[in-house]
Design goal:
This protein has helices at 27-32, 72-78, 113-125, 147-153, 173-182, and strands at 3-16, 19-25, 38-42, 51-59, 62-68, 85-92, 103-108, 133-138, 156-161, 168-169, 187-189. With 190 residues, the chain is an alpha/beta fold. It has two domains: 3-92, Translation factors (Elongation Factor Tu (Ef-tu), domain 3), CATH 2.40.30; 103-189, 3-Layer(aba) Sandwich (Rossmann fold), CATH 3.40.50.80. The strands form two sheets. A six-stranded antiparallel beta barrel has the order 1-2-5-4-3-6. The chain is globular. The protein starts with a strand and ends with a strand. 37% of the residues are buried.
Length: 190
């Protein structure tokens, strides 16, 4: 059952234009979260609705989220400094059931960070010998985030962009179709 916790910000830094990586300390959320889950963060006293943000990774007693500033709530969140307390509800959602075998991980834009937790979970829970692939889509080269982290977790990382600034021009669907055609992957998680 999810609970509300007072969580201390460890780090809150910009990693691309309007995109931030925030790590907070919360032993309870870290201990009970799994890939595919999210947290609800109260963004200031004046806002009634919490902001749902997917969990990017968990390490010991810390939880990392990557979010994009889209409005007042996430704007407020981007201004919070290390040492500040956050009101966080979580973890929420059911998460992924990760099967054995080779897996294709697909994410685009701000939907890529939650998939990093999937990649890390595969490597933490699944026996070695599987060679997973990640396909990540972004608008352009300036919007590519956490690529190196995926490269540490996956044998193959394919980047697509809407323009020719990096990777393959186009959508994630074309390289996905190519990998599926190979026939050696057991599932796609997105």
């Amino acid at each position: 059952m999810p609970n509300v916790y007072k969580c201390k910000i460890i780090e809150n830094t910009a990693i691309a234009e309007g995109i931030y990586s925030l790590t907070f300390e919360c032993e309870e959320i870290a201990a009970h979260s799994q890939a595919g889950q999210f947290v609800h963060i109260k963004c200031g006293e004046k806002r009634i609705l919490r902001r749902p943000i997917s969990i990017t990774s968990v390490k010991k007693e810390t939880v990392r989220i990557v979010y994009e500033v889209k409005g007042e709530g996430t704007g407020w969140l981007s201004e919070q400094k290390a040492g500040t307390d956050l009101d966080v509800l979580g973890p929420l959602g059911n998460g992924f059931k990760i099967p054995e075998g080779k897996i294709i991980i697909v994410g685009g834009g701000i939907g890529a960070p939650p998939m990093l937790y999937v990649a890390k979970s595969i490597n933490r829970t699944v026996r070695s010998g599987y060679h997973n692939a990640a396909i990540l889509g972004f608008q352009n080269k300036r919007r590519i985030i956490i690529q190196k982290e995926f490269e540490e977790e996956c044998e193959k990382v394919i980047i697509t962009t809407d323009e020719e600034s990096a990777g393959i021009k186009g959508f994630v669907t074309q390289p996905l179709e190519n990998l599926i055609t190979e026939g050696s992957y057991v599932t796609v998680l997105s």
